[in-house]
């Protein structure tokens, strides 16, 4: 039996089934192992891991700990309550914005690549090239955030570093907009999001793309990238304090376990806290050479659990409302037995988005794609509801192919 246990209750003789954290966030070679020493428990606590999953059939039990199913049910109930708040209305349809968003994303990824190359050569960032890209991303988000947010889920392993920066910029701009921050602040946050990983230009590709566990020395090199990026951006007199702060502090955590300055909750600026949420969300949903990305809906539930210690809980909940309980591009199973991809949030209920259905799990065949508005009733294009989010790997389908219905 699998149970969720607070790290403070770990004892020698327990079997860790899942450390419940990002692959890069702990010092162990694997996620599953028997605890044999007190030192291993201290390492888990020092890494900022606040809860783990134990396998009671392979080690000691904790009698009053909830099972994984019970813990997930409790989280799901809390997430449903978060979904009740309305979201910002869209100005254009996904079809109208999609091609434009595709071109903007391509342009932005090319710019980040150039910035990284220039940084390796010791050149300052050219803000006259950065500004129009951030303005284009912001304009696209204002017209229809679904297009760029949906594209954020599509990344290739070779271009991950560049596309991750574009996604963080996109998500951070959308987050600022959903929180009704002013245009100037949103623009500066967008610059910070696009350039937040500039310091990775100084990390050798062999370390960035290493498929196995990093050594302690390699991990220390990676942990230097916020400070390196900050130093690189300071060479440009046009870079403001917000992008510098986001670049330097997007890996800080409210419990003081982050880096480079181990800032606590009261020290981390609000925009840096927002950037931290966005950065982790995009990272854990992406396929990397060293880990398989998790579905966006599952990632949000993980973020919600982690927010009790690592992130600002109120901001995490606002981010969940921003991207939707079932984010754009999420594969969902409907009550009718059809699979669908989420394409647009509903303005008042995040549990009833618009989806494109494309597959029947009953006949295990593709069906003619069509858009279904789950907020509508029978005879009005609706009369179906989401049962749960699904893993594309389970069904061997690519839901992102059906973001648009021809």
UniProtKB/TrEMBL annotation:
A UniProt-annotated Pfam family:
DUF3391
List the CDD domains hit by this protein, alphabetically.
HDc
Any GO molecular function: phosphoric diester hydrolase activity
Superkingdom of the source?
Bacteria
Gene3D superfamilies in alphabetical order: Hypothetical protein af1432
Give residue ranges for domain HD-GYP. Answer: 139-335
What the entry lists under SMART domains is as follows:
HDc
Q: Which InterPro entries match?
A: DUF3391 (IPR021812), HD/PDEase_dom (IPR003607), HD_GYP_dom (IPR037522)
Protein name per its UniProtKB record: DUF3391 domain-containing protein
